[in-house]
């Protein structure tokens, strides 16, 4: 595909320039062919140019020698390591020339999945590998779960390294590195947006306490390092520069066949570290399919409960929570029960009904797997005309002449810990408020830097394809392009107000992205209109997602959900309809944290449909956990959860689910239905009803069908129940201050008791105004005239409170 320009090669390889790719001979030939650059050169995929000056993005990189420069024609996400990284590195200070850490291992060419992934490793990670090999004189391999996931068809984003360098050497080479376990050889290396754990090759001594090795010997043998690992699927290594896979125990085969097998003797592996039993159960849920333990591992697991006694409860709960967060958790948990391990984890007797209920609870019924947006039949007729195509003025004057509706899409995955997310789609829809016309649109994809390869989950969710981001500019350039586009429109300063659906885009995502790109967040993007909040306040309803807002306003949801440009246009539709049909005024109602440091982050209940992934994960884990422990008394449950070392929030969630289980409102009592919904909140109601359905389905008594019908009736009636009439419901309309100043109630316990009862009446009777609630108070006053103080106090104590289950 054209001549090869090798004039920039170091002198040690300059003699190769006279040879054709097919003519390489001698010791340098295989080394050149296996190096990343050599591999690309031989395939005609890249070019080394002696006098080339790099593009702006390349010149931003620090400390680059001329030999390390790569062609600006190749996107940074595809740049290979410098040739000298792998072909000319000299032995390290303690290495001899004949040092071979891969002795005893037979490397093989990377299979296609691994090869494609290695070709797209982040540049910051490649730089880490280069520094270790070239400046540190060591060797380095990718190891562990990243290889397992890649071979399983998943996109790895958590990478571990094994190296011949010792921790002190790594800390010297990488000033920002963290000592996260140097006694065991582990250092966390940070470079740009990449953070990876690098561990020195080692050979573990005996595991006397069944938790950790008594001695750790830093070694020089990759084979010995892989031998100490737990399962074959985790005992593989990849040499990036030489494009070799080392798989001495058949891990690649086991991944393909969905087999879980220990390295060496299974019983010995589990005895070394009791937590490996929990890891074995976790790895049975292969994400892309269930893995089956081989016979030796199955036998070893059946006797593993006693091994957990020597493992800290924190470590056990961490692993068990990961099991509960897996899509096949019911199968894995039942296997744990059959192996008599489950009770050692929950510290409670196994509940057969709990196991059945867990199997009846579908993944799609939990927040972690629930569909992000579902089509719902609208109770309102849809507009025949699209407000973007048929503009009209708002009912009230607006504080800004133009609104810029924005909605980012970012890199993501359905597994915990994906970080950092990066903006990959940047759309803006600019609307003139006085006329309702769309003035202009800005739309650009963004090439991510840390995770340049989009996960399957991300592509499926957003509709953004790999080719879209491959050809896109990086964020810094896109942001500048957007600001230039806005400036070219010639609008007066301060006339444009950005608007979003929720605060995530500009309060969370943009500041993180700007920090990653080392650019300030533009002043114009530091305050904005949260359309979701305007909708909630205007229609006096709870927090709603974009599709729900469109439904409530009778707007046809146009385009694909989670497509940035489609969502931005639909947000514009919501904003325009609120202005044109509902008298809404779009004033700035949110800002960055630096301008409002006192604002608290949303709780799960407040966040509603915008709960973060971690919140959804925790909610799903605790919902499943509650079914496993719902059969015991409250005191016993409290003690078990505390000894299991759940966090306070996790304990609260589990306790709440168990406390509510079995207490449903009467389906023909609007007051009970209103109180149930108001106290629990819409999100908790959704989860709790699914738990109720699963618990009823697991009942083996004659009452099973009756209980299942009750859940169905309650769910149906709640879905038809209109929202409370009072604004800002379910907040009280009458305060304690009013009771004392206007109602004449003396300060003391009676104020709180009266306020509780009035709040109960407000929700139960769906009272709309403070005057209606005050009338209830006056009725109580009339009753008090015929009672002495003691009788009156006793009467108030007997009045109901707004709580569930009812007292």
Structure description:
- The chain is of the alpha+beta class.
- The protein contains 36 helices and 19 strands.
- α23 (531-539) packs parallel to α25 and α34 (749-764) packs across α35 (770-784).
Summarize the amount of helix as a percent range: 40-55%
Task: Report the end-to-end length measured between terminal Cα atoms.
Answer: 81 Å
Kindly report the average pLDDT value. 82
The tally of beta strands, per DSSP, is 19
User: What profile does the largest beta sheet have?
Assistant: 8 strands, mixed
Nearest-angstrom radius of gyration? 31 Å
Strand arrangement, major sheet: 1-10-9-2-3-6-5-4
Unreliable parts: 1-97, 371-384, 597-610
Strand content: 5-15%
- Count of DSSP H/I helices: 36
The general outline is globular
Structural class: alpha+beta
Brief account:
By secondary structure, the protein is α+β, with helices and mostly antiparallel strands. The protein is 43% helix and 10% strand.
């Amino acid at each position: 595909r054209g001549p090869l320009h090798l004039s920039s090669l170091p002198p040690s390889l300059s003699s190769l320039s006279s040879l054709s790719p097919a003519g390489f001979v001698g010791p340098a030939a295989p080394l050149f062919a296996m190096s990343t650059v050599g591999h690309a050169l031989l395939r005609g995929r890249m070019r080394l140019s002696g006098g080339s000056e790099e593009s702006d993005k390349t010149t931003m990189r620090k400390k680059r020698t001329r030999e390390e420069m790569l062609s600006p024609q190749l996107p940074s996400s595809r740049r290979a390591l410098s040739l000298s990284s792998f072909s000319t590195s000299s032995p390290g200070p303690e290495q001899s020339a004949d040092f071979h850490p891969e002795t005893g291992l037979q490397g093989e060419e990377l299979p296609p999945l691994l090869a494609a992934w290695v070709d797209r490793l982040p540049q910051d990670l490649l730089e880490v590998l280069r520094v270790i090999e070239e400046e540190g004189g060591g060797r380095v391999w990718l190891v562990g779960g990243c290889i397992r996931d890649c071979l399983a068809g998943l996109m790895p984003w958590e990478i571990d390294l094994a190296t011949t360098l010792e921790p002190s050497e790594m800390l010297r080479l990488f000033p920002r590195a963290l000592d996260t376990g140097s006694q065991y050889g582990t250092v966390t290396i940070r470079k740009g947006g990449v953070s990876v754990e690098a561990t020195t090759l080692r050979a573990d001594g005996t595991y006397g306490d069944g938790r950790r090795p008594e001695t750790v010997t830093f070694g020089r043998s990759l084979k010995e390092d892989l031998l100490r690992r737990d399962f074959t699927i985790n005992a593989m290594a990849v040499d990036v520069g030489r494009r070799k896979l080392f798989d001495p125990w058949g891990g690649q085969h086991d991944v393909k066949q969905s087999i879980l097998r220990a390295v060496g003797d299974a019983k010995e592996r589990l005895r070394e570290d009791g937590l490996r039993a929990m890891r074995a159960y976790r790895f049975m849920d292969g994400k892309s399919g269930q893995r089956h333990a081989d016979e030796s591992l199955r036998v070893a697991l059946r006797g593993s409960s006693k091994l957990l006694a020597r493992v800290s409860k924190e470590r056990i709960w961490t692993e068990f929570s990961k099991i509960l967060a897996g899509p096949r958790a019911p199968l894995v948990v039942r296997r744990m029960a059959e192996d008599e391990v489950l009770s050692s984890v929950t510290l409670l007797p196994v509940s057969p009904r709990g196991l059945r209920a867990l199997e009846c609870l579908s993944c799609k019924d939990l927040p972690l797997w629930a569909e992000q947006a579902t089509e719902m039949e609208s109770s309102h007729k849809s507009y025949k005309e699209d407000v973007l195509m048929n503009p009209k003025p708002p009912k009230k004057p607006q504080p800004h002449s133009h609104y810029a509706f924005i909605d980012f899409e970012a890199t993501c995955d359905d597994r915990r810990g994906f970080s950092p997310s990066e903006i990959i789609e940047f759309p803006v829809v600019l609307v003139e408020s006085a006329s309702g016309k769309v003035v202009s649109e800005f739309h650009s994809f963004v090439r991510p830097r840390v995770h340049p390869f989009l996960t399957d989950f991300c592509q499926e969710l957003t509709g953004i394809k790999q080719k879209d981001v491959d050809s896109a500019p990086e964020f810094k350039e896109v942001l500048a392009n957007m600001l230039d586009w806005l400036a070219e429109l010639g609008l007066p300063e301060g006339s444009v107000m950005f608007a979003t659906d929720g605060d995530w885009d500009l309060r969370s995502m943009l500041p993180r992205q700007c920090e990653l790109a080392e650019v300030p967040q533009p002043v114009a993007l530091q305050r904005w209109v949260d359309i979701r909040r305007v909708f909630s306040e205007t229609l006096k309803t709870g927090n709603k997602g974009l599709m729900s807002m469109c439904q409530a306003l009778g707007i046809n949801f146009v385009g694909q959900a989670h497509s940035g440009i489609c969502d931005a246009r639909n947000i514009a539709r919501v904003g325009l309809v609120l202005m044109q049909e509902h008298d809404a005024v779009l004033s700035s109602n949110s800002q960055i944290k630096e301008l409002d440091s006192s604002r608290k982050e949303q709780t799960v209940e407040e966040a509603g449909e915008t709960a973060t992934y971690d919140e959804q994960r925790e909610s799903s884990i605790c919902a499943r956990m509650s079914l496993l422990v719902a059969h015991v008394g409250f005191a016993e449950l409290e003690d078990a959860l505390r000894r299991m070392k759940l966090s306070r929030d996790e304990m609260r969630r589990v306790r709440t689910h168990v406390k509510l289980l079995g207490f449903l409102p009467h389906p023909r009592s609007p007051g009970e239905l209103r109180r149930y919904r108001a106290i629990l909140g819409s999100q908790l109601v959704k989860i709790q009803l699914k738990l109720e359905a699963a618990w009823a389905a697991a009942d083996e008594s004659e009452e099973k069908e009756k209980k299942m019908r009750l859940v169905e009736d309650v769910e149906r009636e709640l879905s038809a129940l209109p929202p409370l009439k009072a604004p800002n419901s379910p907040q009280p309309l009458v305060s304690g201050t009013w009771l004392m100043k206007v109602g004449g109630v003396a300060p003391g316990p009676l104020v709180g008791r009266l306020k509780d009862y009035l709040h109960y009446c407000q929700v139960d009777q769906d009272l709309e105004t403070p005057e209606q609630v005050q009338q209830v108070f006056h009725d109580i006053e009339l009753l008090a005239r015929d009672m002495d103080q003691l009788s009156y106090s006793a009467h108030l104590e007997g009045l109901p409170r707004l709580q569930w289950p009812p007292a």
